[in-house]
Each structure stands twice: as structure tokens, then as C-alpha cells.
Amino acid sequence: MPKVLCLTGPSLPLSGFARQRLPDGWDMTAFDSENDDAKKVEAAREADFIFSCAHTVGPDLLRAGKKVKLVQLAAAGWDKVDMRVAAELGIPVANNGGANAIPVAEFALSLILAAHRRLHALDRAVRAGGWQTEHRQGHELFGKTVGIVGGGRIGSMLARLLQGFETRTLYADVAASPNIEAAGARRVELDALLRESDVVSLHVPLVPSTHKLIGARELALMKPTAILVNTCRGPVVDETALYEALKNRRIYGAGIDVFEQEPTSPDNPLLKLDNVTAAPHAAGQTVESFPRRVDFAFHNMERVWSGQQPESVVTEPE
């Protein structure tokens, strides 16, 4: 009987959906917090699979999992997994196979529109009894140039959504992406994308090469009317540099769903700015996405259990 160790956060519904959709005859042990490390290590000794969302999968857990055949993630990113140790032990790591591409792309589009129209500032003004606020006049997205950094599943889905706005869509990636190009995007170098875009939306994994990918130099390349949207991982952007660019109006605004430290502090200087729309790392969390994540995860585990290769395996770039 296959045994699954499910690791998630207390505010996420992953373990509940997993129990509902667990294959017949399978057994699952779930932990909904980062606590109880010793119990998790003990459970890993008997596990055939580790199923994780927003949870650290560190070296102790991996080394204890002598029987583990796959670390299956319910998220797109793998930065919470010790990939070096997983590779050393020969344990494949798979992400969610694009199960959250729709909600993240939709949320990125929401942040683009909200930041363009300063929706957060308008909302605050109305609640405070204001009406003729300085933020009434925003910018349109229709016909603008949008730069997507990362041409994977989420970036490709965003490009598809943008077709209705008749945008000129660019993308930057280490490799060409047929999917995003099918949605009308043209591949360019990152610097060219930053210079030409009215919107820059980030959709890359957090790996050494993308850590602080967007810093002071990159922000200086952007138009003063441009906005930056980040729904991937906080450390992809240098927050100090972003704060300076926004405070000094070197760019028009930003939509931020992810931060360098999470949860971010209410004292984060970015949250004091009127040209920032912020969210609590919520882009991928929809009622519809979690069943898709769980279904893909168990599909992948069943493949491995039957002797097939897992799908959507990720590797850490050298």
C-alpha cells in the first residue's frame, strides 16, 4: 500500500482535498504546519511519496525518506525543496504541471489593471469619504506593450489573456517557448523588454540566476510610465531598489503578490507607497485550482508507483 506524507500550511486546503481524492488503498499522513519536525522525519521513513505545498522539504526529511520515490509539489516553484540533497539521493522533484497557471495568470492581469488604474487608492479614498481624488485618472492597458519575463505555463497563459487587450507582447527567457509564441509573444533580450514595455510581469522560478534579477540597473531601464508586477517569488526583485524607484516616481507603479520575507511586515516601506498594489501571496489560491493540483499530484504518483517516469520533473540549473 503506497504511503504519502502530505506537508502544507495551516491556511491551505491541500490536505483536505488530498484526503477526499486519495486513491483507493493508499494511506496518507498529513502535517498542516512547519512544527513537529521529529514526527515528520519519522513519517518520512515510511513514506513512498512526499506531497508538499508551501512547506520546507529539507535535508533531514529527504535523508529520512529511504523509500521516497518522488517529491511532488502542489506549487509551481521548488525553492522550498533542498534540490541539491534530492539530486544526491536520486529523488525526482515534480512541480504541479501547470495546475495553477490559470489563477496566477488571472491574478497577474488583475494586478496589471489595478496598478494602472490605482484601484487600491480609489478604494481607500471612497471608504474615507473622498470622491474627487487625484487618482481618478489612470492608464489603459489596451494596445500597450507588455513584457513577460518567463515563457513557461503561467507566462504563456498570461499572453493568451492579453490577446483580448490587443497588446504588443514581448517575452524574455533562456529558451524559446512555442506556447507563448503561439499566443503572439515575441522573444527579446531582458534589457530590450525592460526598455520597451509599459508593463513588466515576472514569471520565473527562484533559482540562483534569478535572485534579484530585477535590481536598480534593471528598474532604471524601465519607462517612467511603466509598472512592474511580481507574482512569482519575492527575492526575484531587489525590494530596496524597487522602493527607491517607486518613491522617486522613476516607474509609475507596482503590483506585488510576493515579498522577500513572508509574511511581510506591516512596516515594509513598500506598503506605505500610494503607487503599490499589494497582496499576500494569494495569486494561485482559488477554489478551482486546488482540486487540479491534487489530481495532477496523484496522477503523477500513480505513474511512479506503476513504474513509469513522473511528469513535470524540475531540475536546479547549474
State the share of residues found in helices, binned by percent.
25-40%
> Overall pLDDT, averaged?
95
Side by side, the strands of the main sheet go 8-7-6-9-10-11-12
Strand-residue proportion: 5-15%
Class from helix and strand fractions: alpha/beta
Number of strands: 12
The largest sheet, given as strand count, sense and whether it forms a barrel, is: 7 strands, parallel
Which stretches are low in confidence, meaning pLDDT under 50 for 5 or more residues running?
Answer: none
The total count of helices amounts to 12
- Can you write the helix and strand succession as a string? EHEHEHEHEHHEHEHEHEHEHEEH
How far is the first residue's CA from the last residue's CA? 37 Å
Give the overall shape, derived from the CA principal axes. globular
Rounded radius of gyration (Å): 21 Å
Tag the structure with descriptive keywords.
five-stranded parallel beta sheet, seven-stranded parallel beta sheet, 35% helix, 12 helices, alpha/beta
List the helices and strands and how they pair.
Elements: E1 3-7, H1 14-21, E2 27-31, H2 37-46, E3 49-52, H3 59-64, E4 70-73, H4 83-89, E5 93-94, H5 101-117, H6 119-127, E6 145-149, H7 153-162, E7 168-172, H8 178-182, E8 186-187, H9 190-196, E9 199-202, H10 216-221, E10 227-230, H11 239-247, E11 253-256, E12 276-278, H12 289-305
Parallel strand pairs: 1-2, 1-3, 3-4, 4-5, 6-7, 6-9, 7-8, 9-10, 10-11, 11-12
